[in-house]
Amino acid sequence: MKRYTTFLLALLFPVTMYGQQNLTADELFAKARTTAFEQKDYTTSIALAKEALEKAPNYTDISVFLGRLYTWNKDLPAARAVFEDLGKRGVQDEDYFLAYASLEYWNDQNIKAIEIIDKGLSYHPKSETLLLLKAKVYFGMDHYEEADQAVKTLLSINPKNTEARALAVRINDLSSKNAVGIVYNYSHFDKQFDDDWHIVGVSYKRVTPIGSVILRGNYANKFAQGGTQIELEAYPRLSKMFYLYVGGGYSDDVGLFPKYRTGVSLNANLPHSFEAELGYRQLYFSNSIWMYTAAVGKYYKNFWFNLRTYITPDSKNISHSYTATVRYYTKSAQDYFAFQIGTGISPEENRNNLLENETFKLKTFKIGAEYNFSYRTNLFSVGTMYYNQEFRPGEKGNQFDITLGYTRKF
């Protein structure tokens, strides 16, 4: 039996080797891709790609792929040698510039990456992949104006590019060093209160090397009384993926505002244009109210979807608040329509002083819309919200809000 098996192997082995030797360049290329992507065996894939190039030395796609393989295998000198050789041959393929620039970007050679990208864009000015990489490189260098310009160019070509839309929103928060804003909120109640509410907030935002800082002063006229509040918020960046929200506020006019408030959240910019947040908010009137929040967001083409919840435990039960938001971006990250629907009261809302008498534990339904638009460095917003609030057990009232806002960046 053993002798028979050896005889069969002797017959089959030359046939197998002969079949391998007669694979075409395309077949070897396909095998190299399969080996790399499915088996993650870059060493074997490199050997197959080099064998394919022996049969077709001018096959550019295989050479570019070989450069990528060396990059993934952490053999940077070999990868650069492949790409430099392609450059000497005057290759103008879009994928060549993308692969070469990606190598330099991933290894923190940002100036070289921009140089390669710009050369590629001279041949392919409408390349979405090159423009997106250019925006990422500049964003990683903290050159937000250049990143903003690249992503705006990309979105003018394809407004439905999901990854570009998500990046544009992140860049927008950092593209101007300073911003001043004013927001006015008007609330009318049909049953709950006799007097309408008026709230005005004035803010100053400063972008620092570690993130944004916002100082805000609020004036409220509620229950026919006036009061003020001061708030400070910061968004320190921890890494390319993670950043924090840290906020606090103080007021002497308890009842119109909480005595003080605090909040911390960890935010993540996740792969595939997802976002996530996990944190807490605390309000102190005569006692502290602790709320735990979680949110998940997703960019898809021109849309942004977000679902947020607030969980408020106490000794008797747990109160819940849920809000779903959809944005439709029309042009830049500052131009969009938004629709919101939810239940419960959140501490982010101007009506959060209602939390003092624990009406947040009663049933609330809300629905609203908002429109934001920009003109050069001027940002405008208008919004409306309807609430159906159970302000006493078994007794409901309606509330109608109108919000107007203006921000100037400089």
TrEMBL record:
Signal peptide: 1-19
SUPFAM superfamilies documented for this protein: TPR-like
Top-level taxon in the UniProt lineage: Bacteria
InterPro entries reported for this sequence: Beta-barrel_YaiO, TPR-like_helical_dom_sf, TPR_rpt
Swiss-Prot/TrEMBL keywords: Signal, TPR repeat
Pfam families from the UniProt entry: TPR_19 (PF14559), YaiO (PF19413)
Repeat (TPR) residue spans along the chain: 128-161
YaiO beta-barrel domain: residues covered: 177-349
NCBIfam families in the record: OMP_YaiO_dom (TIGR04390)
Protein name: YaiO beta-barrel domain-containing protein
Organism: Chryseobacterium flavum
